[in-house]
Amino acid sequence: MAPGIFPPDDFANLSEVGIDHRYRLLVDAVCDYAIFMLDRSGNVTSWNPGAKREKGYSADEIVGRHFSIFYTDEDTAAGKPTRLLAAAKARGRVEDEGWRVRKDGSRFWANVVITAIRDEQGALIGFAKITRDLTEKRRLDELERIAADAALVQQAQESEKKRIARELHDDLGQRISALKMSLALLEADVLEHVPKALHGHFGAFREVAGELDAMATSMRRIAADLRPPVLDDFGLEAALDWMAERFEKQYGVPARCEIEAGSLQFNELATISLYRVAQEALTNVARHARATQVEIILSRNGEDCNLRIHDDGVGFPGGWKLRPDAFGVRSMRERIAQLGGDLSIESVPGNGVTVAARVPLSRVTLQD
Ligand SMILES: Nc1ncnc2c1ncn2[C@@H]1O[C@H](COP(=O)(O)OP(=O)(O)O)[C@@H](O)[C@H]1O
Ligand SMILES: [Mg+2]
Fold first, then answer.
1. Closest of 130, 135, 128, 129 to residue 99, by C-alpha
2. Which ligand is nearest to the CA of 326?
């Protein structure tokens, strides 16, 4: 046994409660948990390597000090250490989770169990304390929660976009059509009562009709940006095709869409997520790439489904680093992560950017 870790003097009385040499060896071998003893008033009487590793104090530095040193100032001021000891004394055992402080002042999130130790007559000898550093677990839990929240927000946004698109299309679209029809009737009615020679003065009817057509086209474009009907009516493959066609028309850059995925039945989340990734990648091509050609490839490879968007543009600028406010790339990553996949975005100087998403087939197809 390393000297100083379990100081024999402080330990003398513990042999009375049956902690023998083998137990000491066991406790000394534990590095993942801080295991130490307190006397009745809460002063540290023993210290194991796990405690040194977790809290930063060596046995020499800490044995004899009151254990409240491990608590934050706020907790100490609120009497938490004393309260925990009193609870352990009353109930035999108490468990707590919260912030604790290391020797260097840094905090860690700990799970703590304090057990009262009594002799054969039932008199309190002291306390055994086991502390586990849960900082990493807490961080992972938090990340998981944040990811789950982000997924919920995204779902809410998608259903809201769908609702607005439908409303635009069904309500506003109908009204514009009805207005056009009334206008045509009104025009016919007016012109019937006006001499032919004066018809030229009523060109405004045609102008307003033209405006209404332009309005309907805008409205359809806005609705399609929010949620293209082809996605719901014909599925992801057709929507990617349509997206490429539309991109080519809008920006004059040839866009090729290749579907090599066979006839996969994509589930709702995969359909919208892969669609949005391609949409964001194409928006980036339009905004940043100065490309002369783009391709979208949806393929299947063993147990994976791959979506690749490649352009032949200028690529990332030299020394490129993802800006913290670059939400495009981030949202692509998030969407793919939600499907249990991963997304890479690479730039070959002089050969544009490739966005490549890989997702397990089991997560993107409809399960029967
Ligand atoms: N296809 C591309 N070609 C060149 N640069 C790109 C391309 N896609 C993304 N980038 C670079 O990556 C950055 C981050 O993209 P993104 O997260 O979508 O943010 P944003 O488009 O709002 O700038 C862009 O600002 C741009 O510098
Ligand atoms: Mg972008």
1. 135
2. 1
Contact in structure between 339 and 270 (CB atoms under 8 Å): yes
> CA 250 to CA 111: how far, in whole Å?
58
Instruction: Yes or no: say if 77 and 117 are a contact pair by the CB < 8 Å rule.
Output: no
Q: How far is CA 293 from the centre of its chain?
A: 32
35 Cα: distance to centroid of ligand 2 (angstroms):
52
CA distance 39 to 10: 9
In this prediction, residue 11 carries a pLDDT of: 47
Q: How far apart are CA 123 and CA 13, in angstroms?
A: 12
What is the atom index within ligand 1 of the atom nearest the CA of 330? Answer: 17
Residue 41 C-beta-side C-alpha neighbours within 13 Å: 4
* 287 CA → ligand 2 middle, Å: 7
Q: How far away, in angstroms, is 254 Cα from ligand 1 center?
A: 20
User: Which regions of the chain are under pLDDT 50?
Assistant: 1-12, 15-17
Q: Given the CA of residue 311, which atom of ligand 1 is nearest to it?
A: 1
Q: What is the mean pLDDT of the chain?
A: 90
* Residue range 172-211, pLDDT digits in tens: 999 999 999 999 999 999 999 999 889 888 899 999 999 9
